[in-house]
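pasting Methyltransferase for the record, 163 residues
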Amino acid sequence: MIGPYFDGGQALDLFAGSGGLGIEALSRGMDKAVFVDLEYKSIEVIRANLKATGFEQQAEVYKNDAERALKALAKRGASFDLVFLDPPYRLKHGDKLMDMMDSLNLLNTGATIVLEYESSYTYPERPGSFIELRKALYGETAVSIYSFDKEETVRQDAGQGGE
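structre below
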């Protein structure tokens, strides 16, 4: 489902776990990936997996809370073309994290966000500057793919205000 979205650029794997999604992105053509997870064990696994796959030089790994990590990345001037959001299912804040990435200018125009969540939960089709391109259900898991387009959102907001 996410195969068409690997086209060079920078990837962010937030809540990285084993790092599988970010490593897959690197193996399919992304230039660099940043991996973030709060669990020390996950960080060890990510580092081991990067070493095993030979992608250590294309990766940065951080042990941090998601929101803090986003703020730190923004201070460094980072920007991403592809973001994997796979928060624990009990946390229903994928859209808030997307808005935070927008407000911190962490996303390049046309960036793709892959959000994984519990299938019984529903995220909006157009949260903020994002447009849902695809959604798939896999049992208890749902995956939505969003495209980031700040300019389109600004145009739509301007058009609605002047009627």
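Residues 40-53 form the longest helix (14 residues).
The longest strand covers residues 107-118.
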